[in-house]
Design a protein that fits this description.
single chain; about 270 residues; alpha/beta; Rossmann fold; four-stranded antiparallel β-sheet; 8 helices; disordered C terminus; binds adenosine-5'-triphosphate; binds magnesium ion
Length: about 270
Amino acid sequence: MTAMGGARIEISGVGKRYAQRRNSAHVVLQDITLTIESGEFVSLVGASGCGKTTLLRMISGLAPYYPGTISIDGQVVRGVPKRVGFVFQDAALLPWKTVSGNVAVGLNEVRGSYTRQEIAGIVEEKLALVGLSEHAHKYPRQLSGGQRQRAGLARALVGEPELLLMDEPFGALDAFTRLRLQEELADIVERLRTTTVFVTHDVEEAVFLSDRVVAMGANPGTVRDVVDVDLPRPRTSREAALNSARGIELRENILQLVMGTHTDRVAH
Ligand SMILES: Nc1ncnc2c1ncn2[C@@H]1O[C@H](COP(=O)(O)OP(=O)(O)OP(=O)(O)O)[C@@H](O)[C@H]1O
Ligand SMILES: [Mg+2]
């Protein structure tokens, strides 16, 4: 497989507020400035309600009208950009389509430029990447939760996205499946180097997968700090990465940042 290019994201002075009753507004995000380099894996970590999903939706053009700018490869986001793959907490597969059929949906508008055989080949390749080849003809109801999330990831990857947005994709899985999928995702992103913005509550998950972790504060949502995860790659073992001296230090620093109890600046 050829390596994919990744988009560069520039978020500059972005805020988001929602109108409330009596002319008041709920400020969800305030003055978010962050650059995500091509091929980088960046996690957003923060308390529930701090605006992580909102920020992902803004990057993907689904939540317009805000101060500041978000640009992808120098183009200001207006509408839903092409070549963006989205993976949700619940894979949101179409129940009447097989796994293959669901993955093919991810081809969207480029679908028409392929023959049926070509589509089958592309879908097969992505199913192999996420370890689902043997389940291609099953329907979503016949899959486990972990298999459904893998199918959701294959659907997001099939259009060869330049940007992958993942919103707590493993949040609903049991602990064991979650750890396995983390290792599989680490392997996949290391191979593809697609720029990825990954939302999670789980600091360990963020440290294991990321090049950088954005620790967000809440009410309003802000960037408290951005921490470089300088653990060596490839990170084949979750245990080894997280339980190294540096892994433990990073986890503690980020946890304190997220909880708002951090006193000293984190050493970068
Ligand atoms: N369409 C909307 N209208 C009004 N308020 C909204 C809307 N979408 C989100 N909010 C509010 O914005 C805040 C941030 O929501 P968001 O879903 O981005 O948080 P989050 O960090 O993803 O939380 P969680 O970790 O629980 O998923 C919440 O207080 C939410 O109620
Ligand atoms: Mg959310």
